[in-house]
Amino acid sequence: MNLVMSWNDWADLDGTALASLVKKGEITSREIAEQAVRGIVALNPELSAVVEVFDNVVDDPLKDGMNPNGVFAGVPFLMKDLGPTLKGRLQEMGSLLMKGNQAETDSFLTKQMRQAGLNIIGRTTTPEFGLCSSAENPDVYITRNPWNLNYTTCGSSAGTAASVAAGIVPIAHATDGGGSIRIPAGVNGNIGLKPSRGVFSLAPKGSDLMTVVSFQGCHSRTIRDTAAFIDNCRGGAPGEFMPYWSSPEPYTELIKKDPRKLRIAVSHEWGDYCATPHTVTELERAAEFLEELGHHVEWVLPDVDFYATYEAQTAAYMMNFAQTISEQLEKKGLEEPPADLVEPICIKVWEEGRTASYADRAKMQTLFNETSRRMGAFFENWDIILTPTMAKPTPLLGTKEYLTTSDNPSVYDWFENLWSIFAYTPIANICGIPGVSLPMSEMENGMPLGMHALARQGNDGLLLQLGAQIERALDGNWNHGRKPDVHVTKINSAHGQWI
Description:
Blueprint: H1 7-12, H2 15-23, H3 29-47, E1 50-53, H4 55-59, E2 75-80, H5 108-115, E3 118-124, E4 136-137, E5 141-142, E6 144-145, E7 148-152, H6 158-165, E8 171-176, H7 182-188, E9 191-194, H8 208-211, E10 215-220, H9 223-233, H10 251-254, E11 263-266, H11 277-292, E12 296-299, H12 306-331, H13 344-353, H14 358-378, E13 384-388, H15 411-421, H16 426-431, E14 435-442, E15 448-454, H17 460-473, E16 491-492, E17 497-498
Parallel strand pairs: 2-3, 11-12, 11-13
Antiparallel strand pairs: 1-3, 4-5, 6-7, 8-10, 9-10, 9-14, 13-15, 14-15, 16-17
């Protein structure tokens, strides 16, 4: 398996650029799939980011129905092991309980990805059922941050974040139920946009109405790749409960123009949740940078009861994950989750959430509605809210208070720990508004720190436009032009090993 280009060239090309070379006939989709696999083979022993490689679509990119004339023209793509299903492929959701679980059909979004020309060559790691902040159950796998192997990638799009950050693939699938696209993007130095409700379909097994807070998306290294992903994968399937957003102008065209002067509200003290002093300093620098780009920037806080709102988010998690686990137990003929196959906090979530009543769900939805209305009113006066992506530094591996392997006796206290570090992202899921993490800043130890921007529902294009303006101002040098410790450019091409 020979390299079609040097690893330095590979790392310099985003998905759009790779697709252009394929369309010109300079390289083939099989050759770039093979190069991605070489990257996986070299780096995965260190990162544990990829669960499985689909060898037959590496050998034959057209095997599963990839459209070679799509915008991505066979660019290798990794699917998070959660969310959209791949016909005939395993989907094990990071859980021992789900070992051997095989999907019967392609999800609607999977078909959209294939039609866009993405060659799905494998699946990436996730915490059990995507519930917690890090994929690190030693009985399943421990996914490590390529910037420093002693730290977590966060989650739940753990393997995707590591794979894109390490340069293995330029773009990969991610999901977001409370920040699971944006948080790992923020701590791995990727671009991660959680779209508005009504952009990507969850058909046929789900809908935005059913899942309430879960969204699909991607990680990438360039704004234009994310824009192309949304342009070509968006849309509702037959039978959706709600209308789907469309854009009068493709995002790939919109991002070529700077946005108008924006009204940007900056904040980090959300109720009792607030950022560390270093993070606040970085937020101030980001705000000043946006002001230098010509935008009006002011420190303003949305009028929201954050504590009550995140109580409602906790309730949503309890109900939704309990239902997910119950469905799997029923399929397996089990009455309760086996303690040797399901992690402790997931069991506690199931125990609490399975008895929730319709009244409990109605109370949650009422709080969601109130928060959404208040945020909507705020966006009548402001275009963007800027916060850090996380309130606290990236945890070291083994920081159990955020893991579903935790022995915390209170599942409510466990969730409160999550909100204290991931304070700024869940509100986008509650309200169905778009949010993006951009790799603009650094933590005190030099690891990436994402800056997080929110906009009104349906204004995903504005976030991408602002991101593209920042990208141009930085000459494309996200992360100050730095690369992680574990990266494809550090592969010894003669031996195919990371050095």
